[in-house]
Amino acid sequence: MQKILVLQRDGLGATKVRAVAEQRPDLALHVIDVDGPFPPIVDDPQDHFPADLDAHLAWADLVLDHLYQPDLTDHLVDRCEAAGVPVIASGRKLPRAHTPTTCCTLGRLEELGEYAREFGAPEFEVTVEEGRIAAVRVLRGAPCGATWKAAREVLGMQVDEAIPKIGLATQFNCYAKANPNVFLTNPLHVAGEVHISALEKAIRRAGGKTSS
Fold this sequence. Notes:
With 212 residues, this protein is of the alpha/beta class. It has helices at residues 14-23, 53-59, 70-83, 113-118, 146-153, 159-173, 187-205; strands at residues 3-9, 28-34, 62-66, 87-88, 123-129, 132-140. The radius of gyration is 18 Å and the shape is elongated. It starts with a strand and ends in a 7-residue tail after the last helix.
């Protein structure tokens, strides 16, 4: 069983924690809340973490960072590096952490264990009958749960209608902010596009035809 430690500021990771627990109840999740508000610069970030943080890191196989405060994250990454535990911090630029543009662009990295095999860039398996999506199975999806919700919405649709629909449905269920991030991309647009691409690939593998 993979042991995942989640550090979140003011509950910012709560929706993803719930979705991960629903999809993979066999994963061991432990959440540490760090409550704000915080000034733009935190001079003593260690004071805002539990005194036994290193003990929690010794337990963990993977850390998910939902702190979204540079000084807090820097301290966390320092402690994770010392403990030899990988960190995922989506939407940021950190040389010592895994930082996909969005949570649904995370690659299949062996270092990240079961989490990365289940969650990240979406993958579908579909059945196409008479030009319609007769069945769709999520092989891998976003940890916010949007992939599974969007997949249900394209069942029974014509292939060429289902492709844009899965993008819109993903965006509707996505928790990313609509404004450009540090990668100068709009996370909502990225989420929609990667799901569209994944569905197109699945349709072609199933022998269906798309207009693209």
